[in-house]
Design a protein that fits this description.
The protein is mainly alpha-helical. 86% of the residues lie in helices and 0% in strands. The protein is built from eight helices and no strands. Helix 3 runs parallel beside helix 7 and helix 7 packs antiparallel against helix 8. The longest helix is centred in the N-terminal third of the chain and has 35 residues. The radius of gyration is 19 Å and the shape is globular.
């Protein structure tokens, strides 16, 4: 048992644990806000859109872990200059997968049909709301993929406090605060705007 090693693990791991807690709390709060302040039709459209978004999550997860692994290896090999090319390549891959995800969304009717009941799928308002949510999730996909890559880059540099701040600002600033403002305060319906 080594107290110094334990302290180092806590120093590196605790900010990430707090950041993940803030992230999951944010998603849970977003679901709660939508469940309490929107119609069941709109909430179902949101849930199905979120499910389709999660299908693409493997891209974010895989690329970010690759960035972290490669950057850690370059630090260990004392070749930090190569880390810049890893980040450039992850941005290019993000652009490629964003186009792929956009095409996937344009032809997402079979996925929407799979995750919804037949009578719900035939409702034009439901389909329209689902596509509006999917469009927002496409924007979140691009920003979140870049955030994940930057996060694992910071992990490689052991800048975990930056990751904590980044998680809080991203999820709470770009998702929770706007959701609260538009859905709760303005009683916003995405079809109207």
């Amino acid at each position: 048992w080594s107290w110094s090693f334990f302290k180092q693990c806590v120093d590196v791991g605790m900010p990430n644990a707090i950041g993940c807690f803030c992230l999951m709390t944010g998603w849970s709060l977003c679901y709660q806000l939508l469940a309490l302040h929107t119609s069941s039709l709109m909430f179902t459209a949101y849930s199905i859109s979120f499910t389709i978004f999660n299908v693409m999550f493997f891209v974010m997860d895989g690329m970010s872990k690759a960035v972290g692994t490669l950057c850690s290896n370059f630090i260990g090999a004392e070749q930090p200059a190569l880390m810049r090319s890893v980040l450039k390549q992850s941005c290019r891959l993000t652009f490629f997968f964003a186009i792929f995800f956009l095409v996937f969304l344009l032809f997402s009717n079979p996925m929407i049909r799979f995750f919804s009941s037949e009578d719900l799928f035939e409702n034009p308002l439901f389909k329209q709301q689902t596509f509006v949510f999917l469009a927002w999730y496409w924007v979140i996909f691009v920003l979140d993929t870049l955030r994940f890559c930057a996060q694992y880059f910071m992990f490689a540099l052991t800048k975990t406090k930056v990751v904590l701040i980044f998680n809080v600002v991203f999820y709470w600033g770009l998702i929770i605060v706007p959701t609260y403002y538009f859905v709760v305060k303005l009683k916003w319906n995405p079809i109207i705007y």
